[in-house]
Amino acid sequence: MEKDSKTEKLERIYCQNEDKELQQLLENNLDHLLPGDQISPGQNLRWLLVKREMPVVNAASGEPGLSIDFLLVDQYGVPTLVECKRQKDGRARREVVGQILEYAASGRNYWSAAEFLRYARTTAGDESKLLEKLKELTEGSDTPEDFFSRVAQNLKDYKIRCILFLEGSPLELRNIVEFLNGQMKDIELLIVEARLYQQGNSRIVVPWVFGFTEEARAAKRESKAETVRASVEKGEDSFWEGANDALGEEEGSVDQLREFIAALAEIPSCELTWLKSCTVSLPAVVPGKIILGLRRDGSLELYLDRWRPLQGVELTREQSDARDAFLMGIESLFGIPLSKMRESMTYRLISAKKWLPRADELRALIEKVASFSSLITNHEAEVFF
């Protein structure tokens, strides 16, 4: 503004290349161009990029062949799909709504916590960088496994956010989005209109959020509160409270889970950490990494991927023996083919009904693997870092 209080009108401009201008602009300015305080007043949402061009399975063929422009998550673990469209793209009208909802429906059926974690790690650069980003995002002590398990659970529970990131949004598109948003309790559908202006040699981008009426906000208020509560309740007391809620009707299950965890705590080199789940580590065998987690619903998550060493580094014979003992024991207990475990080395979930009856055998297996710690020196163990 000049001293005489006169203002200068900015020239509205439009991008010519969606990828180089609109998408890269968004990727480099996520927190500014997807204003969390406008999207969810009072929460000041922040974002973590999981993947650009996230693969989407075509329901008709069962094969990946589509992709969503951005898959993000906020600090509460809500998966957020973002589709970008230029002003001149004819799909930036009604068709884009059906497109993003189709992608969300496919993602709910096919995406997994392990897939989210793998892509997020690659996008961040490596595991240590992902840990830093997650710590900054959540301001808490979630492990990546816990966090992305929550993302997958939110997806399963239809707690999804879909954002249309557009240069301009016609009135009929806003009407459709507001109408659908008012009818959906958990799913959020929004438009963020990125208005580009030119001032001299500089470009100015002003984001405008459309899609929320006060009626829609009221309808989603309890769902949002539930999501926030689920993201912040950590620790042993909260774990058992959740376990009692989830397993209370299954006679003896909570007691069996308590006995199993208490037995693990007695293994000298076994460490338990209470976050959203109870995680189990054998730091003298696999330093700095979790080998399994116990969820509040009683399910057991095997972090097979955590047995991988650093790229280009070989396991010692003792570490290979420890890993093989663990994998063969899991194969014997739960019938998971060893060949498949060796091929995928990913994260596997086993229901409480399947593993609790064999809890004593699983404890004995963990104790056996822990015993390899006496054969592994600290230097040898470093290959897992």
What would you note in describing this structure?
The model is unreliable at 379-385 (pLDDT under 50). Helix 5 (113-124) packs across helix 6, helix 5 packs across helix 7 and helix 12 runs antiparallel to helix 15 (359-370). This protein has helices spanning 18-28, 30-33, 36-39, 95-110, 113-124, 127-138, 144-156, 171-183, 214-232, 236-247, 253-265, 317-334, 338-344, 352-355, 359-370, 378-381; strands spanning 11-13, 47-58, 63-74, 79-85, 161-166, 188-199, 202-210, 271-274, 278-281, 290-294, 300-303, 347-350. It is α+β, with helices and mostly antiparallel strands and 385 residues long. The chain has two domains: 11-232, no CATH class; 236-384, no CATH class.
The proportion of residues forming helix, as a percent range, comes to 40-55%
Average pLDDT metric: 82
Most strands sheet: 7 strands, mixed
Molecular shape: elongated
Q: Please give the count of helices.
A: 16
- State the separation between the terminal residues, measured CA to CA: 55 Å
Order of helices and strands: EHHHEEEHHHHEHEEHHHEEEEHHEHHH
β-strand percent reads 15-25%
Low-confidence spans: pLDDT under 50, at least 5 residues? 379-385
Query: What's the β-strand tally?
Result: 12
What's the structural domain tally?
2
Radius of gyration: 24 Å
Helix and strand composition category: alpha+beta
Task: Give the SSE layout.
Elements: E1 11-13, H1 18-28, H2 30-33, H3 36-39, E2 47-58, E3 63-74, E4 79-85, H4 95-110, H5 113-124, H6 127-138, H7 144-156, E5 161-166, H8 171-183, E6 188-199, E7 202-210, H9 214-232, H10 236-247, H11 253-265, E8 271-274, E9 278-281, E10 290-294, E11 300-303, H12 317-334, H13 338-344, E12 347-350, H14 352-355, H15 359-370, H16 378-381
Parallel strand pairs: 4-5, 5-6
Antiparallel strand pairs: 1-6, 2-3, 3-4, 6-7, 8-9, 9-10, 10-11, 11-12
